[in-house]
Write a structure and sequence with these properties.
The chain has about 110 residues and is an alpha+beta fold. It has a single domain (about 5-110), classed as Aspartate Aminotransferase, domain 1, CATH 3.90.1150.30. Helix content is about 35%, strand content about 25%. It has 4 helices and 6 strands. The chain has helices spanning about 5-15, 55-60, 90-100, 105-110, and strands at about 20-25, 25-30, 35-40, 45-50, 65, 80. A 6-stranded antiparallel beta sheet has the order 1-2-3-4-6-5, covered by helices on one side. It starts with 5 loop residues before the first helix and ends with a helix.
């Protein structure tokens, strides 16, 4: 299976209810209302995404594809990854779970059936 790209993320994200895409300071970002749940570095090699704060240290320690956010972003529920090292299934899981952190539960049930 191939590795994920920004275009793969875009194709998925824009199917998720209430998602809009924005280009802010030369960075692609996907958000629900004003809440960004997925964003790319300017060179599009890193993808940041919403992720439970209490779980991110374990994720980063267990897999070198994942990185802690910069110091100014540690207060957010956020983690980053090297997008070119994720396969399509893992990218889909991460982006969908990030989206689910910022939408009402009924939308999650409608989209994911859980």
């Amino acid at each position: 299976m191939g590795v994920a790209t920004v275009e793969d993320v875009r194709k998925l994200a824009l199917t998720l209810p209430r998602t809009t895409e924005h280009l802010i300071h030369d960075r692609v970002k996907f958000r629900v209302t004003s809440i960004v749940y997925c964003a790319f570095s300017r060179d599009e090699t890193l993808m940041g995404f919403a992720f439970p704060r209490e779980e991110r240290t374990a994720l980063v320690a267990s897999d070198d594809r994942y990185l802690l956010p910069g110091a100014s972003d540690m207060r957010y529920q956020w983690v980053a990854c090297r997008i070119g090292e994720l396969d399509l299934d893992e990218m889909q899981e991460r982006v969908t779970e990030a989206w689910a952190m910022c939408v009402p539960k009924f939308l999650i049930r409608e989209r994911l059936g859980r």
